[in-house]
Amino acid sequence: MTAARTEQDAPAGAVTKVVIPVAGLGTRFLPATKATPKEMLPVVDKPAIQYVVEEAVAAGLSDVLLVTGRNKDAIENHFDRAWELEKALEQKGDQERLRRVMKSQILGDIHYVRQGDPRGLGHAVLCGALHVGAEPFAVMLGDDLIDPRDPLLPHMLDVQKRYGGSVIALIEVDPAFAHMYGCASVEPAEDDVVRVTDLVEKPEPGTAPSNLAVIGRYVLHPAIFDVLRRTEPGRGGEIQLTDALKTLAGMPAEQGGGVHAVVFRGRRYDTGDRLDYLRTTVSLASERSDLGKEFRAFLREFVAQLPPEVEDD
């Protein structure tokens, strides 16, 4: 594919590579994901994975590695040419749909590697070691969509450039739900940037070190690969990226250690379960210039006609 931006075009020392794990089974969305990757489920009229790749490329990360698994061929097909479809649209003179179809294949330089055994997020990141090499890189998870009006990755890349080491993204969550996330202990650094002193993956209820939860955006020092190779399986019997980051947070800077975080307060959409997926679709559809006005009118009318809620006994 033709890259939107190549490493030769990037400034010296700039982060240009991103690893996006897409090997999960998507069991929360069964039976829809029995034969369709969850990353290909549409959010309005675009698969979720395309939003993530578009975000990466907009931040200058044009070298994209998708860590795939079995039955993920649809993802590769989506970012490949569709000659028959393109020809049919061209013959019909449907230039708008042709443009939208072709966009996914010119986003960046997209590569693929198979994870093989499903051994956790840390293992999925480790699968990218050969491609990434000895340079900082980003990791993006497909369950988190970040609104382009609140760019997060460019800020994280800037923080990594200034502080070195690794950078993660945190959000404030209700303490009652902190046990559902990886949570961080932090010290102030500057404005919305903090220094991470500890990380716990899905702590037991009531034991979280803070209400600051890790979300699916990372800029990592390549030292993470050696740490992951030494990391024993943790929660769920999987190699946890959070555990490796905890180790990095306690390592000296000259060894690639140190972890900072951006506390993100912008618009984020979660597609990780059915209810959040529906919320995301409705939110994004409501704001579309081509759909929003009519869709919002429909929602108002639909909600107004709903019967009063029946309280549980």
UniProtKB/TrEMBL annotation:
InterPro entries: GalU_uridylyltTrfase_bac/arc, NTP_transferase_dom, Nucleotide-diphossugar_trans. The gene is galU. GO terms for biological process: UDP-alpha-D-glucose metabolic process. It catalyses: alpha-D-glucose 1-phosphate + UTP + H(+) = UDP-alpha-D-glucose + diphosphate. This is UTP--glucose-1-phosphate uridylyltransferase. The keyword Zinc-finger does not apply. Residues 18-282 form the Nucleotidyl transferase domain. It comes from Jiangella aurantiaca. Keywords: Nucleotidyltransferase, Transferase. GO terms for molecular function: UTP:glucose-1-phosphate uridylyltransferase activity. Transmembrane segments: none annotated. Belongs to the UDPGP type 2 family. Its EC number is 2.7.7.9. SUPFAM superfamilies: Nucleotide-diphospho-sugar transferases (SSF53448).
